[in-house]
Amino acid sequence: MFLIVLCVFFGLLLLGAPIAFVLGLTGISHLALMSFDYFSVIPQRMFAGINITSLTCIPFFIVAGELMNGGGVTRKLLDFVMEIVGCIRGGLAYCTIFTAALLSAILGSSNAVSSILCNVMIPDMEKTGYDKNFSGALIAASGMLGPIIPPSTTFIYYSVLTGCSVKMLFMAGIIPGILIALAYCVVVRMYIRKHDLPRVFDRISLRRLLRAFIQAIPALLVPVVIVGGVMAGIFTPTESGAVACFIALIAGLMYKSLSFREIPQMMLRAAKSSASIMFIIACGNIIGWSMAVDGIPAMIQNAILGLTSNYYVIIALMLVILIIVGCLMEATAAMLIFSTVFLGLATAIGMDTLHFGLVFCLMLVLALVTPPVGMTLFVTANVAGLEVRTISKAIVPFVAAAFLVIVLIAYVPDLALFLPRLFLGYGTV
User: Fold this and answer.
1) pLDDT at residue 77 in the model
2) Cys-Cys crosslink for 398: which of 141, 273, 286, 383, Cβ 3.0 to 4.6 Å?
3) Interval 41-71: pLDDT, tens
4) Are 370 and 327 in contact (CB under 8 A)?
5) Is residue 396 within 8 Å of 166, Cβ to Cβ?
6) What is the average per-residue pLDDT within 18-26?
7) How many whole angstroms separate alpha carbon 62 and alpha carbon 267?
8) SS3 for the chain, per residue?
9) Is the pLDDT of residue 16 over 80?
10) Alpha-carbon distance 200 to 127, whole Å?
11) Residue 99, CA atoms < 13 Å, CB-side half-sphere
12) CA-to-CA distance for 405 and 110, rounded, in angstroms?
């Protein structure tokens, strides 16, 4: 029976069916093979999958991204970061990474970060002598920081599925996000040395830097308020999304670059994006429930533990499996299906649940830029006018760098747990 379900799943993928229909139809097929009596419960399971208060933050962050892009907030952040790194050879590339990190602390979405940067960075990088495929790969990889640096919609959704503290996940994601950004800088440095790319400025101008900083203050307040507010317990992640929208709106008005005529169109785009995400989650809940009813998570767990009980070997197996899953499946769908499977396995070998949650989310975030299903890779290629095949080759060094960081975090738990222990008292009685 399980083989039939797998055939349905991969058959639909090969046919190019939308991921929501792949998940939904696979789940329905699985339930049909067990009993048609389950069909009456399907609408309830779909509704239950999205009837979660924490998920309302996702539309808020999407709206915030639209307001920021239309309100000139992104441009001010770019100008400020450029004044800092522009005097370094290859300053545009470093600017892309650091700006992505700032945008990540506002938007929490890889697709939003990469699509915004494509529009503003690729033309400038082409003029300066960067290969367009490298530029696209850098932007797609930098978009990975969106679901890692808090507030992260990936962490929020994982928290909804497993009950793990979203505040702890947010705090645990800071160091991995910084390490991955630094790993990207190493890749960029190697590229710059090979191609001898120029500086944007000869030296730092304190006057220009001060002016850029003052102009960027409204934009910089957004991540400070969002992340600081959540960490301090002032507001929930959902409330932080609403605050992000408000501040982005005010910032756009202060910069006098936000047109009220464009807001309805922004809301429409945000509504479409939000609806598609929620529909994927609703359909994914069908297959997640069908697997739970059939006891598949326990079967997979027992099969792996039957091979070995070694802590380090099982972590390696999970990483390898998640790489394969990431190449074949969209990240949200993978989380729906595999979160309970691997959480049970991690618990069985004594792995800290917060540590596991972070590693699991990081691997699924990596899947956003791994072909053939890497969603952020497709978004970047589409916005930048690139072929997926060529950008896939160019992104390999960035994927390798990010993977090495994730492996380090997987085997050195203190890197993930240091900040939650220090600031939130994680693990203390």
Assistant:
1) 85
2) 141
3) 888 888 877 877 767 777 887 787 778 777 7
4) yes
5) no
6) 81
7) 9
8) CHHHHHHHHHHHHHCCCCHHHHHHHHHHHHHHHHCHHHHHHHHHHHHHHHCCHHHHHHHHHHHHHHHHHHCCHHHHHHHHHHHHHCCCCCHHHHHHHHHHHHHHHHHCCHHHHHHHHHHHHHHHHHHHCCCHHHHHHHHHHHHCCCCCCCCCHHHHHHHHHHCCCHHHHHHHCHHHHHHHHHHHHHHHHHHHHHHCCCCCCCCCCHHHHHHHHHHHHHHHHHHHHHHHHHHCCCCCHHHHHHHHHHHHHHHHHHCCCCCCCCHHHHHHHHHHHHHHHHHHHHHHHHHHHHHHHHCHHHHHHHHHHHHCCCHHHHHHHHHHHHHHHHHHCCHHHHHHHHHHHHHHHHHHCCCCHHHHHHHHHHHHHHHHHCCCCCHHHHHHHHHHCCCHHHHHHHCHHHHHHHHHHHHHHHHCHHHHHHHHHHHHCCCCC
9) no
10) 11
11) 34
12) 18
Q: How many other C-beta atoms can be found within 10 angstroms of the C-beta atom of residue 217?
A: 13
Q: What's the mean pLDDT in 292-321? A: 85
| Confidence (pTM) | 0.84
Per-residue model confidence (pLDDT) at position 2: 63
- pLDDT at site 360: 94
pLDDT of residue 108: 66
Q: How many residues does the chain have?
A: 429
- Name residue, tokens 């994680």: 426
* CA 308/CA 314 separation, integer angstroms: 7
Which bin fits 57, alpha (ψ -120 to 50), beta or left (φ > 0)? alpha
- Output the six-digit token pair for 134: 């490298």
pLDDT in tens, 138-192: 999 998 888 888 878 788 888 888 888 888 998 899 999 999 999 999 999 999 8
Is the CB of residue 372 less than 8 Å from the CB of residue 366? no
> Which pLDDT tens digit goes with each residue over 200-231?
777 778 888 898 898 888 778 777 777 777 77
* C-alpha gyration radius of the chain: 22
Q: Is the pLDDT of residue 83 over 70?
A: yes
Query: What is the pLDDT confidence band of residue 429, given thresholds at 50, 70 and 90?
Result: very low
Are 381 and 156 a contacting pair, CB within 8 Å?
no
**Mean pLDDT score of the chain, rounded to an integer?**
84
